[in-house]
Amino acid sequence: xxxxxxxxxxxxxxxxxxxxxxxxxxxxxxxxxxxxxxxxxxxxxxxxxxxxxxxxxxxxxxxxxxxxxxxxxxxxxxxxxxxxxxxxxxxxxxxxxxxxxxxxxxxxxxxxxxxxxxxxxxxxxxxxxxxxxxxxxxxxxxxxxxxxxxxxxxxxxxxxxxxxxxxxxxxxxxxxxx
Amino acid sequence: xxxxxxxxxxxxxxxxxxxxxxxxxxxxxxxxxxxxxxxxxxxxxxxxxxxxxxxxxxxxxxxxxxxxxxxxxxxxxxxxxxxxxxxxxxxxxxxxxxxxxxxxxxxxxxxxxxxxxxxxxxxxxxxxxxxxxxxxxxxxxxxxxxxxxxxxxxxxxxxxxxxxxxxxxxxxxxxxxxxxxxxxxxxxxxxxxxxxxxxxxxxxxxxxxxxxxxxxxxxxxxxxxxxxxxxxxxxxxxxxxxxxxxxxxxxxxxxxxxxxxxxxxxxxxxxxxxxxxxxxxxxxxxxxxxxxxxxxxxxxxxxxxxxxxxxxxxxxxxxxxxxxxxxxxxxxxxxxxxxxxxxxxxxxxxxxxxxxxxxxxxxxxxxxxxxxxxxxxxxxxxxxxxxxxxxxxxxxxxxxxxxxxxxxxxxxxxxxxxxxxxxxxxxxxxxxxxxxxxxxxxxxxxxxxxxxxxxxxxxxxxxxxxxxxxxxxxxxxxxxxxxxxxxxxxxxxxxxxxxxxxxxxxxxxxxxxxxxxxxxxxxxxxxxxxxxxxxxxxxxxxxxxxxxxxxxxxxxxxxxxxxxxxxxxxxxxxxxxxxxxxxxxxxxxxxxxxxxxxxxxxxxxxxxxxxxxxxxxxxxxxxxxxxxxxxxxxxxxxxxxxxxxxxxxxxxxxxxxxxxxxxxxxxxxx
Lengths: 178, 670
Known about the structure:
Number of helices of chain B: 4
Largest sheet of chain B: 7 strands, antiparallel
Mean pLDDT of chain B: 80
Strand content of chain B: 35-45%
Shape of chain B: elongated
Strand content of chain A: under 5%
Oligomer: heterodimer
């Protein structure tokens, strides 16, 4: 439906694109950049790019992957444009040892770990585990080889596992279970 | 954690983050931005056409024509400078403003005044490839300085060869101005043979790059003086000392009764810092003193607040502490009907800055600001809380669950001693606590009134395993320790009299006691408790004797969170069962018969319900979807409603009164 509307450049296409892909694109951009304002800008830029240049896309599945690719590259470009890498740290979101058994605490530790990942690796992680893109699609999106993406994902998971394990590793825990 | 579980957790976490994101974009906004973009494009085309005509008229240059092909500049490109940029300095001179940095790499391309042949500078869309300019083995933090003249931007990236990814970068528009990017952390990969520095820039551009390394000592945090909170205000967050060169901040949710937020700022360095909250004017502070300065902002109770600190000038050490004028307490819906003994069961949950506590039947959670505190097992109205401070040493306070007051300090010990566990015995109004000293561990018994502190057991030397636990019925307190050379000892303290009996027993270390019930200790055992080897779960008679294996060769992690529940049908052992994509199943093992059943599950949800480690009346288990703590910086988002389940009758009581949240909560912007 949207692809057809794009080809015909119908006026309602923008609304259709926003409804069909807006949330997902915003989420992809936000999860990469951790900045809601930047993420909204990226959604706007991506959808306008699609409206103006997306007429050659032939099927819906390709459209989604293409939109995610454009949004991801906008997100990576957005960060590159900044003169210095600025990260707004969510300072207190580290769970304490006593609450590590709780799932939400683990999620907060996990988010902290994701925020610590390098931008490209974070992008690969978001595309794989949020957008459910295949390794090949991620490789095409980020301009890397599938093997590089596989290695990046594996490294990211390893680092997150270490990050999940690390906050609990204190003398208190050792003492209790010594 | 199992691979697929990490991946599942990752998927869920990202999805919850995405779902919590407010979506405010509208079609009309898109249409408006489209119209603006078309107006800009038309103006750009007119300007480009005029420039092209002028260029053709005066130079006959072909290069200018190529600009017509670039109606939409490549992502990341910036327009060429309109005025002549300053000449580029020597690469090594780029770091003149960073005297602490030792030059590790420099690289220069092209003349200082820019491309020799402007016509050869990049046309939009021209091929741009990264060029490796060198390798540096870092031992400390570092700074990258870049400057260029030409088309677009210069991107300098530092790649870890072992990890295979870029972990820091600097981007400079090619207008001649130098740009600096600092990596203020320990080396990412100490075993790296050398991290690769690569530059991506338009062909024909002139550019300079310098990489300087700082001594590792710059990462040593300063000793900021202690911060005293404002009288009557409560701590909301403390980020600790952070080395910052650009921006940092804290996202918190304000306590419900708060109307004002205070931000206490400590900094050290030559620069200055401006502090603001979203939408407010910034307050500028110099860093001539490390004393805390306070900035106050209006706040809305229950709403998120983003505190942003922006560094000006050189990097500096910064500590942000947020306080609020309201109690750190949350209120939920009224509790459903339930037996009085269930309603009165207390719970306590720690965080780095506070201890939160309440009862199963209450709808209000209290919090006490206590840094690095560890609550013990509460009982009745008694909540023992241990805390530690390098200067003041270890302390054990007794808190009233009903009033939230610290009733008294029960024990204290100088550093490096540490009180690492405690248990309240409501039946006999006693508290047991474990004190780790330089030579071993002492187990004490002290009355709730603070009198009669007695050592009831000691564990010295290097045990292969030791543990302690209070029986469910408060009848005994048990300390069990094993040594490779001398075998095992067990100390049983009579709950009523405090008299301790100690006896030898065969070597079989008890690594963790899950519960003491019906004259039995249910615990885990393996040859050396510190080792990660397969673990048996055993039931052993309290007074010694042959143990019975309940679970053979369990993986240690699968016993995390396992516990014993006394029931009218005999004690049950609750342990994690099969791990699915969205849920964790829990097995209920009848300790007497060895029969196994599944813990009755609630409706399927995205958050697994996990039994909470609190003591309830016989037969009951409390399942929570993410703990019971409700902290200002970690609200109860994405948590299913806690449920009480009776293992015998299968009765279920949904607890809307305890912290939970299944919807979105507002997030700070900016």
